[in-house]
């Protein structure tokens, strides 16, 4: 599975999809960020990765968060960098990029 994800990172904008997180506060909950990012990756590669983030994502344009991607049966872990691209009406949109090499 990790090979599939790595193959996707080589494509321009392949992992630059905007995600939407609904949040009543100024952050997007950690579990929501993890779930939505994993959902998008699963749609792209056909297998759901494990995404682990260290906390909530600030709902502010330019805010960043580095999460970790892992796959069942693979000991490698990859950084996933998230960046908030817009916030409108309490909805944060973010892009993400999976590192090409393991951490």
From TrEMBL:
<protein>
    <submittedName>
        <fullName>DUF4333 domain-containing protein</fullName>
    </submittedName>
</protein>
<dbReference type="InterPro" id="IPR025637">
    <property type="entry name" value="DUF4333"/>
</dbReference>
<dbReference type="Pfam" id="PF14230">
    <property type="entry name" value="DUF4333"/>
</dbReference>
<feature type="domain" description="DUF4333">
    <location>
        <begin position="18"/>
        <end position="88"/>
    </location>
</feature>
